[in-house]
Amino acid sequence: MAMAQDAVTIAGATLRLVQGDITDQHVDAIVNAANSTLLGGGGVDGAIHRRGGPAILEECQEIRRTRYPDGLPTGDAVATTAGRLPARRVIHTVGPRWHGGGAGEAELLASAYRSTLARAREEGLRTLAFPSISTGAYGYPIEAAARVALGAVADELRVHAGAFDEVRFVLFSAADLAVYREALRQLS
Ligand code: ADP
């Protein structure tokens, strides 16, 4: 169970940190740390497609054909079915690869979070679970990424008060949870 320090209330919405597997989350939408191809990958992406089954990939392929023939741009987001996952929808977003911090990474990472929340609002999805976007294969240092992630989500919850019930960050390891906990402490 999450401890009190792992949740804050912002404009009536709960912002919560938990340790776990994103594919286990019973929420309106889980978020995939996808790549531009939308055709699958490792990490969170691999876990979501494995557990969700082929329906997710089929819809991603259709989105590529019809809307994003050159791939989903970094910082953008699209929603699909969640297949066999317990969540209702998957929102796929593309975080930036880390190139040292001078290539607009922070703004692109914040954009990935904002775009995801925009897709959720369009569909009336009120409970969301995010992974730590870009901090795996894409190499974004997690301390910096946690500040950007929590800052961007907190801003959106304030600007769109009433749109969400809960936004949860699902951290895979205890070490990652500890980093996000410190960033949340600094935020509040
Ligand atoms: P990116 O390519 O955006 O860096 P990754 O999927 O490689 O995305 O990693 C993002 C973060 O998600 C990493 O911290 C990784 O440990 C974590 N992660 C991997 N699998 C899962 C999962 N099933 N649930 C939650 N987090 C996960």
Describe the structure.
It is a single chain. This protein has one domain (11-170): Leucine Aminopeptidase, subunit E, domain 1 (3-Layer(aba) Sandwich). 39% of the residues lie in helices and 20% in strands. It is built from five helices and seven strands, in the order E-E-E-H-H-E-E-H-E-H-E-H. It has helices spanning 43-52, 54-66, 105-123, 142-159, 174-187, and strands at residues 7-10, 13-19, 29-34, 77-81, 89-94, 127-130, 166-171. Strands 1-2-7-6-3-5-4 form a seven-stranded mixed β-sheet. Helix 3 (105-123) packs parallel to helix 4 and helix 4 (142-159) crosses helix 5. The radius of gyration is 15 Å and the shape is globular. It binds adenosine-5'-diphosphate (ADP).
How would you summarize this macromolecular structure in one to three sentences?
The chain has 188 residues and is α/β, with parallel strands linked by helices. It has helices at 43-52, 54-66, 105-123, 142-159, 174-187, and strands at 7-10, 13-19, 29-34, 77-81, 89-94, 127-130, 166-171.
Task: Annotate the secondary structure layout.
Elements lengths: L6 E4 L2 E7 L9 E6 L8 H10 L1 H13 L10 E5 L7 E6 L10 H19 L3 E4 L11 H18 L6 E6 L2 H14 L1
Parallel strand pairs: 2-7, 3-5, 3-6, 6-7
Antiparallel strand pairs: 1-2, 4-5
This protein binds adenosine-5'-diphosphate.
Adenosine-5'-diphosphate binds next to helix 1.
Give helix % range. Answer: 25-40%
Q: How many H/I helices?
A: 5
Radius of gyration: 15 Å
User: How many structural domains does the protein architecture include?
Assistant: 1
- Major β-sheet strand ordering: 1-2-7-6-3-5-4
Instruction: Determine the strand fraction and express it as a percent band.
Output: 15-25%
- Secondary-structure element string: EEEHHEEHEHEH
CATH fold call: Leucine Aminopeptidase, subunit E, domain 1
Count of individual beta strands: 7
| Ligand types | adenosine-5'-diphosphate
Q: Assign the CATH superfamily.
A: Leucine Aminopeptidase, subunit E, domain 1
- As residue ranges, the low-confidence spans are none
Helix- and strand-based class?
A: alpha/beta
The biggest sheet amounts to: 7 strands, mixed
CATH class call: Alpha Beta
